[in-house]
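Q: what does this look like with glutathione bound?
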Amino acid sequence: MMQLFSFATSPYARKVRIVLDYKGVPYESCERCYSLDRKPDLKDASRRAEVPVLVLPDHRVIYDSTIICEFLEQVYPDPPVFPKDAFERARTRMIEDLCDRTFDAIGFGYYFAILRKDAPESSAMQEAAKTECRALVERLEGELGERAFFGGDAPTLADFAAITHAPLVRAMRLDTANLPGFNGWLDRMRKIPAVAADHDRAAKAWQGKHNLAAEFEGPDGRIHWRDSRLEWPIRQGFIDLIAREYHAGRMMFPPQAA
Ligand SMILES: N[C@@H](CCC(=O)N[C@@H](CS)C(=O)NCC(=O)O)C(=O)O
């Protein structure tokens, strides 16, 4: 059976688990978070030690949620998570990419600012995240238009990527009353069994041993930063806060990939 290195609150691992469940593919899940538990098996499987990582029954390894989902689509084409039309397929990937980079970076910045509540930048950083999140949800509303899901009548990878970030909109208490497309989409998504199961897993994780500090800081108090999560606070002008984190030795990066 395939094994998935996963983590209950990782949007990328959640996306892959939703796709596996949606397609009815059997797999064994292994909860890992390198920055929290530093167990060597994840790093042995994939040098960057990020979840998700899919290990095939013959021990071959695939990392990165998008690459894993493309593999799953080819091996288990039914039900599909990509549209057939070439442009719509590219559009699905663009929406997925938008969620993976932008939504994730905004959420990371928002929770980081809450965690550093005593920093002088904390409230401005939370506000910047809320403003950008609002703009992003409006953009998604536009992408939905009159469609039930981003790709039309059936959900695709774009929907599964976006739904893992939807809790952020509620956590920020953003007013979405004038976004009927987004709200209708949320209702439809929550009725999909694979999405409901993911929601239960993530909610249980948040209520259980996970808390904000535990989620962010490894055993030595360092926070795991990478690409778009680092770009966001610098673009927003919070470079001094990031520099203080760096000089205080509170940052860590994924292990070198090669
Ligand atoms: N591009 C990767 C990103 C994966 C990623 O950033 N995973 C995070 C969790 S959300 C991670 O494993 N970070 C290392 C850690 O926290 O230990 C993907 O799509 O799979």
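The pocket of glutathione is lined by residues 10-12, 33-35, 50-52, 64-66, 100, 224 (CB under 6 Å). The chain has 13 helices and six strands.
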